Amino acid sequence: MDRRTFLSLTGAATGAAMTATPAQGSSKPGPWKDGKKWVYSITYDEGCEDLLKHAVPIHREFGIPGHVAFVSAQLGIPRNVPGSSYHDLMTLSPDQMKGLMKEGWGASCHSMTHVGVTAENADVEVVEAGKVLADKLGVDIPIFTVPGSNHGHPPAIAAAAAGGYKAIFTIYDKVNTFDTDLLWLGRTPLHTEYPGPFYSQFDPWKRLQQAQATAGWVVDYCHLPLPDTPVHPAKDCTTQELRARFEAVKQFGGDDVWLAEPNEVVDFLLNDPGARQRRMDQPEGLNTLHDTSMRALYTTND
C-alpha cells in the first residue's frame, strides 16, 4: 500500500471516529439525577470579568451552567497575583456573579490570595477564605479549589472540615466516579496545548467516552477563553475550542448526560439516597488506591 492510499484510509477512519455518536445502549435509567448516565461540568479559575463577554454567551447557547473558582479577596477588583498570566485583569463583582447564579452558575473558593496553601497559612487561605466568599455572595461554599499546584492539596484536606467544605477540586486529570473521594476530585484541563514533556494538543472529545463507560463525572477547567488566541496555551483554550468542546459533549452525550453545576453534583452525591447507597456499595477501587499512594507522596512535611 502506498503512502497516499494509507493516508486516505486512515484519514477517513479518523474522521468517522471524530463524528461518531455513542452506540445505542440499554434504556435502563442511569445512576445520576433524573436517570442521567454520566455528568459534565466546567469550571473557570480566577473569575475574570471578561467571561461575561466571551464565555457566558456560549454557555447560554448550549444550555450548560458554569462554575467560578474565586480568589476570595479579589472580587470586583483587578486581579493581584504578580507573575500570573491573568494579573491585573478585572474580576467579576459579587453582583455580577449573583446574576450568573440566577442562571444556574455556582462558585467555589480558590483560596484567599492564591498563594500556595501550606499547613501554616491554611487557616487563612482555606478556612477564612471560604467564609469571606460566602459572605460576599450570600451562599454556602461547599467546594474548595486548590490554587497553583497540587502540592497545596494535603494541607487543604486537613483544613477542609474547619472551613465547612464538602469537596475539594484538584488539577489531577481524571474522571470522577462514585468511588472517588470527594476531597480528591479531579479536573480535566481544557487547554490549547500543553508543553513538554507530554506535548498534548486540544481534544474536544477528551475523557467523554471514559465518563460514559464508567458512569463518571467530567469536570473541565480553564480560565478565560478568548477568540483565536488563548491567554496562555497551557492554561486556557480559545472560544472556538470552548464551542467545539460543548458541541462534542452535546453530540456524544445526547439525553444521557447531566449538564450540571458542580455544587449540585456534590449535593446529589451526599444527599440522594440512591447515590449514597451506591457510594457505600463501591469496592476499594483504583481511585482510592491511587489517592492513598498520592497522599503519602505529597505530605505537608515536604
What this model shows, in words?
It is a single chain. The protein is an alpha/beta fold and 302 residues long. It has a single domain, classed as Glycoside hydrolase/deacetylase (TIM Barrel). The chain is 37% helix and 11% strand. Strands 1, 2, 3, 6, 7 and 8 form a six-stranded parallel β-sheet that branches. It has a two-stranded parallel ribbon with strand order 4-5. Strand 4, helix 6 and strand 5 form a beta-alpha-beta unit. Helix 5 packs across helix 6 and helix 9 crosses helix 10. It is globular. The termini are far apart. The N terminus is likely disordered.
Summarize the structure.
The protein is of the alpha/beta class. It has helices at 3-18, 51-54, 56-62, 94-101, 122-137, 153-160, 208-214, 239-253, 262-271, 273-281, 286-297, and strands spanning 38-45, 67-70, 106-109, 143-145, 167-169, 188-189, 217-222, 257-259.
Topology of this structure?
Layout: H1 3-18, E1 38-45, H2 51-54, H3 56-62, E2 67-70, H4 94-101, E3 106-109, H5 122-137, E4 143-145, H6 153-160, E5 167-169, E6 188-189, H7 208-214, E7 217-222, H8 239-253, E8 257-259, H9 262-271, H10 273-281, H11 286-297
Parallel strand pairs: 1-2, 1-7, 1-8, 2-3, 4-5, 6-7
Helix pairs in contact: 5-6, 9-10
Instruction: Please estimate the helix content.
Output: 25-40%
Structural class, by secondary structure, is alpha/beta
For the secondary structure, the number of strands is 8
DSSP summary: helix tally: 11
- Under the CATH scheme, the architecture is Alpha-Beta Barrel
